[in-house]
Amino acid sequence: MMAALLTSLIFIISLWLIFTEKINRTITAIAGAVLIVGLGKGLGFYSESKALAFVDFNTIGLLLGMMLLVALLEPSGVFQYLAVWAGKVSRGRPVWLLFLLGTITAALSMVLNNVTTVVLIAPVTILLCEILGIAPLPYLVTEALLSNVGGVATLVGDPPNILIASAAGYTFDDFLTRALPVVIVVWLSSLILLRFLFHKELSVRPANADVLLQLNPAETIADRAMAWRVLAVLGTAIVFFFLHGALNLSPAFISLGAAAAALVWVRPDFDEAIHKVDWGLLIFFTSLFVMVGGLEAAGVLGFIVRFVAVASALPPVLFGILFIWVIAALSAVVDNVPITIALIPVIQGLGARGMDTGPLWWALVFGAGFGGNGTIIGSSATIVIANLSRKTHTPITTKLWNRRGLPVMLAACAVTSVMYALAYPLFVR
Amino acid sequence: MQVKDCMKRNVISIPADATIAKAAGIFVKHHVSVLPVVDDLGKPLGIIRLSDLLSLELPDFVKLVADVDFVHNFGAVETTRPDPELLNRPVTTLMQTVITVEEDDGLLRAYALMLQHQLSDIPVVNKIGGLVGIVSRVDIGTAVLSIWPSGPKTQ
What we know:
The structure holds 2 protein chains of 2 kinds. Helices cover about 80% and strands about 0% of the residues of chain A.
């Protein structure tokens, strides 16, 4: 009992520190993990070897491989190419620009890290808006929202999906048949909603549309040969992801294999490429695994499972929808990664008590994925866009987000709930 | 040789209560790249550079996009001017911390400071901190070269 209380206390304080951002989240997680292992050794409920066993190396490997691929793709200029292309095709018509940039961001986020996608698309968006003489706000808000929406669609799109797939044994194709259809509907309805939320801004026809037409996307490609090579490797990796269930290959193997192939083929400045890997995030994940392992070893998660099991007396569909909304609300205020890592053993525990876990896993995918759009600090992508906009003449404020971002998140959860209820049998194991 | 031997003594400066618009006028009139901001006693409080004023007009994307070479026409931003309200703020809102050298300092010390802080000009102060001159990289660089063995004698 003592062990459970103290471990929960360390975990809750860590979550609080991560939420308030007073200390870097990775520092908090390392310190929390060390405290929990130390406590576990002292009270005899946890040890170094048990902690290591809780680390999901499939997730870490998959993330590392994708980060290396993106590190090689980033300097090639492919992202700028797409954004400039969108600008040209839109011919300066604001609604077209919004739809095209939003769609490109969502599509890229399906295979690449959301933060990378917005970090690379947003500066070019600001460029397009400035030469057109229009405010970049509607486009930046749209990109932040849709990168999170797109990320929900595939196994590799978002860290929670990687974690859930790894824990529940879902394949890439499971995500394409369950998550992708929901994402397509949410993506379209979000764009339509955004078009109305920003009605005033989008009805101004920019005067400088001809300047946009003078841009040549091809000039944004820094190194054509490198771009093609990395894209070829990425394309091959995606084909392998489709087949990974049939070939019995782990997603981490495919991702690290692709990274190795790209590194051998492109042979970049390795120090520069390895520097772009987000080591802080990988350490954050590892530390969270160790912390949640401690929660489980101390019996905290068992207690939560018994508690949640009481609520499972509700009709299963209603229970699933409630799960989506509770997780979405949590993800809107706290990072969705610790929430997902903590809930995975809870869902597994419910499964051990005979509950069908399928619908709960998908509720976790949707809640954790769409919830981050609820607040300006809800996800890494929204934080990055907000920070970026703070360096410009038109910063995104919390007030603006609550009026233009939050409604889109609520609509996404509502649309998802309806689809979840209608297609409930599809989510059952 | 010391800094005082190659500095310009006629230094253009600006009082702390002047507006940004006033500073812009002085830049244009005297064709200079930096203006030390001084207090009533002539001590430097900060420095305002031509680039600080230009950043008010520079579009945001220039800071954010790594290579803007593909943008041949800047479109709307070419004709956007800073907000008049912004130009009426005091120069102190835009000024940067000033790094100074003393008039008795050596040339290489002054040059090293300019290199490390990426400065093109550096104000010179006397023992009690009053502004007495300004030196540029060109002033210091040519002064150093002029005392090289094969330097000025070949003229």
